[in-house]
Amino acid sequence: MDFHHLRAQFPTLEQTLAGYPLCYLDTAATSQKPKQVLNAMARYYENDNANVHRAAHQLSSRATSNYETVRDKVCHFIKAKQREEIIFTHGTTESINLVAYGLTGQIKSGDLILIDTAAHHANIVPWQELAKRTGAIIKPIPLDSECRLDETAYEHLLQENPFIVALSHVSNALGTLNPVNRLVALAKQVGAITLVDGAQAIAHLDVDVQAIGCDFYVFSGHKMYGPTGVGVLYGRFDILDSLMPLMTGGEMIKTVSFEATEFNQLPNRLEPGTPPIAEVIGLGAAIDFLSALPREVIAKQEAELLSYLQTQLKQLGDITLYGANTSNIGAVAFNLADEHHQDVGILLDQQGIAVRCGHHCAMPLMQSLGLKGCCRASLGVYTSKEDIDRFIEAMASVKEMLL
Amino acid sequence: MSQVSQPSQETFLALKLDSSEILPLFEQASNWQERYRQIMLLGKALPKLDEAFRVESAQVRGCESSAWLYHSVIEDKHYFVADSDARIVKGLIGLLLTACQGKTSAEIARFDIEGYFDMLGLTGQLSPSRTNGLFALAKAIKAFSV
C-alpha cells in the first residue's frame, strides 16, 4: 500500500493554517473525505439528480438504483442477513432515536435500561426520553479503574433482567474498545434487547453484526470517510419490523386515506420523506474506499501510530492519559498537568493542529472521571508519523508556554 | 441573565484596564507565541472572581470553558467584572474589558469588537464558530450596555 498515494486522496489535508501545514488529529469528530466520495456526490448532482422511488423517468430510475445499491453495499459491509435490515438515517443520533422511540409501546414502567457509562450523549438522551415516556429506569454500567466497562458490575446488573442494553463499540471520548461480542452474548442470555453504537468503530474495525449478535447496530457516514447527514440503523429484521415509526409521512406508507393509513414494509417503513440521496451515494463510495483498502494493514498501522502517540505523550511529561490501553482504537484522551483543555486546544490550533478539546459529548463519563473535559487526538487512515511528531512538537511548545 | 447578588461597587471600579498600556504590547508582538504570552499575562493581572460569584446565573453560555460576567452601571458608565477557568479565555476577556470598561452606552455601541481583535492579530477568535465563548461574552456586554 502506497501511503502517500492514499493520503493524496484527501484534498482538505493539503492546506496550511496561519503558515503551518494542517495536522488533522480530529478524525473521531469527523473524518476527512477522499476524492472518490466527493466525486460520487458531485456525479449524482451533475448527472442523476432526481428523487428516488418515484421512477416514472430514467433519471429517477438511475437515482433509485444507485441509492438502493448502497443498501446492498452496507448490508454486505456489516454482514447483515438481508438488505431490509438496513435503514438509512441522518446519522448515529437519528438511528438511536428511531430505536428508542420505536420501542415505546414495548417497554413498561419499571423496566430497566442499561447504558454504558462511556456512552456519548446520543446513546444516553434518547433512552432518557424513552424512560420519561414510559416509566422505565436507567442505570449506568460502571467503568473499572482503567476506564473499561466493568464486566463484573455488568454481570450483576444483568441479573436484574434489563429490557435494553445500550453499549458503545468504541468509546467516543477515550477510544477504549468494548468486547461487544461477549457483552452482547451475556445480555442475550437474559433476553435483553441490545444496541451497539458503532460510530467510532466502523472506520477502524471490520464489523460483523451477526457475529456480534446485537439487535441493533448504528453508525454515521461522516466518521467513516463518507459525507455528513447520513447514517445507518441496522436492526435484526423481526425486531426492526416491530418498531413504531418515529416519523410518518411520505415514502413510508403503503396506502393513505383520510380514514386510515397503512404503512409500507421495511426498509421504507422507517425511511419517511425524501432521503439524503447524494449522501447515501457518498456513503456507498466511502464503503468502496474502505473495502478497497487492506483493512488489516491499515488497522495495524493505526494501532502502531496510536501506541507511538501514547508513548510520545508520556515521554513529554506532565501529561495524564485517560483510559489509555493497548487495545484502544483511534483516539487518545489526555490533559496537560492542571491546565484547562481549552487553553491547550487554542495553543495547538495556533500551530495548525486540530484536536478536540472538551467533554466530547460524554458529560457523564467526564463526571465519572472527575474532569471538566480533556483533549483528544484521534487518527485516520491518512494520519502519518510526521503528524504525530508535529503534534508532539507543538505540545512541547504548549507545555513551555503554559507551565 | 438575572443576577441575585453582585460584586460590590468597589470591585467593579477596582478593575482598571488601561488600553494605552496594553495595546502597544500586542502591536509589538512579533509572533503568535508573543501575543498569547501577553494574553496570558493580562489574564493573570485580572482579579479572580470570588468563588461565591462563580454561579450559574452569571455564566455566559457558549463557552467550552466556564466564564462568568457581572455588569454594573456607575454614573452612566458601564463596568464589568468577569472571569474564566481557562487562562487564555480569561486573557481574551481582559482584552474585551479593556475596550469596554468605564465606557458609555454610545461608546460601546459604536465599538467594533471584531475589528479590535483583528487589529490585535487575533482574527477569528471572536466568531460564533469558536467555542471559547468570546462571541457570547461580547454579545452579553453589548446587550448589557444598551
Automatic annotation (TrEMBL), chain A:
<dbReference type="InterPro" id="IPR000192">
    <property type="entry name" value="Aminotrans_V_dom"/>
</dbReference>
<comment type="similarity">
    <text>Belongs to the class-V pyridoxal-phosphate-dependent aminotransferase family. Csd subfamily.</text>
</comment>
<dbReference type="GO" id="GO:0030170">
    <property type="term" value="F:pyridoxal phosphate binding"/>
</dbReference>
<dbReference type="Pfam" id="PF00266">
    <property type="entry name" value="Aminotran_5"/>
</dbReference>
<dbReference type="InterPro" id="IPR020578">
    <property type="entry name" value="Aminotrans_V_PyrdxlP_BS"/>
</dbReference>
<keyword id="KW-0663">Pyridoxal phosphate</keyword>
<dbReference type="InterPro" id="IPR010970">
    <property type="entry name" value="Cys_dSase_SufS"/>
</dbReference>
<dbReference type="GO" id="GO:0006534">
    <property type="term" value="P:cysteine metabolic process"/>
</dbReference>
<keyword id="KW-0808">Transferase</keyword>
<dbReference type="InterPro" id="IPR015421">
    <property type="entry name" value="PyrdxlP-dep_Trfase_major"/>
</dbReference>
<feature type="domain" description="Aminotransferase class V">
    <location>
        <begin position="24"/>
        <end position="391"/>
    </location>
</feature>
<dbReference type="GO" id="GO:0031071">
    <property type="term" value="F:cysteine desulfurase activity"/>
</dbReference>
<dbReference type="InterPro" id="IPR015422">
    <property type="entry name" value="PyrdxlP-dep_Trfase_small"/>
</dbReference>
<comment type="function">
    <text>Catalyzes the removal of elemental sulfur and selenium atoms from L-cysteine, L-cystine, L-selenocysteine, and L-selenocystine to produce L-alanine.</text>
</comment>
<dbReference type="InterPro" id="IPR015424">
    <property type="entry name" value="PyrdxlP-dep_Trfase"/>
</dbReference>
<protein>
    <recommendedName>
        <fullName>Cysteine desulfurase</fullName>
        <ecNumber>2.8.1.7</ecNumber>
    </recommendedName>
</protein>
From TrEMBL, chain B:
<comment type="similarity">
    <text>Belongs to the SufE family.</text>
</comment>
<dbReference type="Pfam" id="PF02657">
    <property type="entry name" value="SufE"/>
</dbReference>
<protein>
    <submittedName>
        <fullName>Fe-S metabolism associated SufE</fullName>
    </submittedName>
</protein>
<dbReference type="InterPro" id="IPR003808">
    <property type="entry name" value="Fe-S_metab-assoc_dom"/>
</dbReference>
<feature type="domain" description="Fe-S metabolism associated">
    <location>
        <begin position="26"/>
        <end position="143"/>
    </location>
</feature>
